[in-house]
Amino acid sequence: MSEPDTAARYLDRYAEILAEVSATGRRLTRDELDARRALGEQAAERGHSLRSLVREHLAATRAAWPGSRGSADHVLAAVEQAVDAFAEGYERAQRQAVREEEAARREFIDDLLHGRSDLGRLAERAERFGLVLSSSHAVAVAEGPEAYDDVAPVTQRIEAALIARFGNRRILLATKNERLVCIASGDQDDVLAYFAGQAHAATDDGRVAIGRPRPGAGGVVHSYEEALSTLELAGRLGLDDPVVRAADLLVYPVLARDRQAMADLVLSALGPLKRARGGAEPLLETLRVYFDSGCTAAEAARRLALSVRALTYRLERIHQLTGADPADPVHRYTLQTAVIGARLLDWPAQEI
Fold it and tell me: Within 13 Å and on the Cβ side, how many CA atoms surround 96?
């Protein structure tokens, strides 16, 4: 029958060494110190706590304590050597375990977000990191003025806030391509909303995109890619919202799917604005703000820092140049769609 794996097992020859030191006054040899380090590594790998191991060493020291003062000094020095070497081995094993865990976590994140691994194997690995890929998941992606990394203070603050708020819920937080990624169950929108708020507050100038919940292991990839696309789209559209949801912007990818048709619409509906004094940009911005204001002239004028009369003049000028009246419901949809297309295609800054 094998000996139980107790903390006392890792004191091999410790009492004998103390007895020899007490009798001879010698110091521990290099081989003995290496043996103590090896025992420390083994104890760490088996999951024993350093506290219990030190307690066993102290108990063994007390049992072997010599009677004379001179011998006691030698034994105390030997105890210091032995315990220090043991703790060094223990810490070395722990550091190695942390490095291996970080490497495994990074590899898992890469495989999960790129769908490069066998889905069955990926699902098995996911459980180790708190995810059950048989259910649906949604992904939120945050980007800020500075790159995110695993050891950045802002990353650690956000992680601490999530743990404090949601405890042991199945949440995975990681960095990827200098962005911060949060993966949560599809029915835990409160987690992603809280993450988005924390990420935005931590950077003051960041933006967060939230993908839609998708089922299965492949669903994480789809939600992640959707969140990335939403971030890019929000930037191209110049949206002011710090948190954007893919579900709220579904119409834009549809509009951009046929690029040539969209380009034709932009040039046909808005191309004449280039003939205006100062070019198309001022009038295009006027249309954008007018539509964003719900076609309310007073609000649009306020946002543009214009008088209502000046705004009305601009709208009339747009009507003259394009033949479409922004205030007319019949023309409004065409103009508004063309304005969206111009933002998606970065027109007129880019030729189309």
Answer: 11
| CA pair distance 210, 221, nearest whole angstrom | 13
Segment 144-203, tens digit of pLDDT: 888 888 878 888 899 899 989 998 778 888 898 899 999 999 898 999 999 999 998 887
| pLDDT band, residue 85 (cuts 50/70/90) | very high
| Cα gap 123→144, rounded to integer Å | 31
CATH superfamily of 253-345: PucR C-terminal helix-turn-helix domain (1.10.10.2840)
Cα–Cα distances (Å) from 28 to 35, 80, 85, 326, in that order, read 11, 10, 10, 90
**CA dihedral sign of residues 258, 262, 263, 264:** positive
Fold of 126-249: Alpha-Beta Plaits (3.30.70)
For 281-304, b/e burial (b = at least 16 CB within 10 A) is: eebbebbbbbbbbeeebebbbeeb
- The pTM of this model reads 0.65
Which two three-digit tokens encode residue 271? Answer: 């191309």
Spatial neighbors of 6 by CB under 8 A, at least 6 apart, are none
> Which ranges in the chain are annotated with CATH 1.10.10.2840?
253-345
Query: What are the tokens at 277?
Result: 């004094």
Delimit the CATH 3.30.70.2730 region(s) of the chain: 126-249
**3-state secondary structure (DSSP) of residue 247:** helix
Q: How confident is the model at residue 1 (pLDDT cuts 50, 70, 90)?
A: very low
**pLDDT digit string (tens) for 33-71?**
999 999 999 999 998 999 999 999 999 998 888 765 657
**CA-closest candidate to residue 283, choices 233, 342, 236:** 342
Question: 194-243: per-residue pLDDT in tens?
Answer: 999 999 888 777 899 999 999 887 888 899 999 999 999 888 888 888 99
